[in-house]
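Quick one:
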Amino acid sequence: MTIIDANHYLEQLLSPAELDRIARDCQFCLRKRAITPAMLVTALLRALGCDQVDGIAGLHHHFNALQLVDAHQVSYKPFHNQLRKASFALFMKALVERAIALRIGQQMKTASLGAFKQVLLQDGTSFAVHKSLAEVFPGRFKTISPAAIECHMLMSLLEQRPVCMQVSADTASERQFLPEPERLNNSLLLADAGYIDMAYFAKVNEADGFYLVRGSKSLNPKIIRAWRGDEREVPKLAGLSLKDAGRRHCRAEVLDMVVKSGKFEYRLIRRWFAEEKRFCIWMTNLPREAWPAERVMSLYRCRWQVELLFKEWKSHNRLKGFVTGQKAIAEGLVWASLLSLVMKRRVAQTLMGDGLSTLKAAKNSGTWWFPLLEAVAHRALEEIRERLEWAAVYLAKNARRTKQRKSIQNRTLEGISNEVFSSCTGSLATTN
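Output:
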């Protein structure tokens, strides 16, 4: 069934008729041209997912390399003109949304999430673009990068794939891209310190959702109650501010507290790292009874999966600032790069199932993904199936997760999931 599912997924996304329909809906291609949507998309996937492309000329070379007849090759200018259309970015974004939304027969699940319906990871990554785009995409670091794009990603931990993505200037506030509170009903959000928003967290609470966010150094709430990591209460800390309750007041390595900032009351966990001589804090509304401090801190380590996705995206799908002053090209190629990531992950997960190393599959995509795209571009239907079968065998032998030593098994996603979620299958209730 995996071969059939993968074949069906590719057909739904990359069939010429479907791509023509989406291109017309986006006003990208309203009449028949030498550069068809099907051939353009396949060429972009081939270039961004399999090769070290450094410029738009490299994308053009990949397009011509897919042509079986010399007369179908195009010169650089008409190719560039297609990419500079304002609707190019809309077309690629529509394809990404469709690639994410399509459900296929076998969905990869890394582990049970206990009582949670979903665990979502929120983060952003940015990169510099041509300085002529500074008015459209102003950067935070004016001297070094006057123009920069930031991609705001919401990722599913369960399925190891993006759920949605938004593109903005690097100067835009990260908090405005958080998911709607209602979406977090019976679900958990993991985020970094840049996403602290007390009013938003209150709405998540009202929606019966959960959050776990890294605290910033500027946080200084009033302590209402405090417990050590061994569950012993520390009454002397009540009434103090967080910064006043330093190592002189309590030498416990872990403190689990109920705190208040203005009108907002929430749970705060603080840990002392002796080697680095610093505190690390986490904000959450997970109940203490079901989620002791040690388990909460282990749970937060799952957020690293979105960082690994960014690394794969930048290193193996060419997420970068191409040298162009055209907004449509810069933004459209971001979406094309994400389309490459989403499709490669989904096809590899479908063919391989459990045990897949997404990093190994991405590193070797030139071997298994490249030939598959050529067969899709040439509409060689029998050959597509043969290459999918070959890819399944190849990934099973060359993209399997390496078995970790027992001493570090608890650092892997599977180890953390087994430790954190296995004993938390009961119902949850928010602390407020």
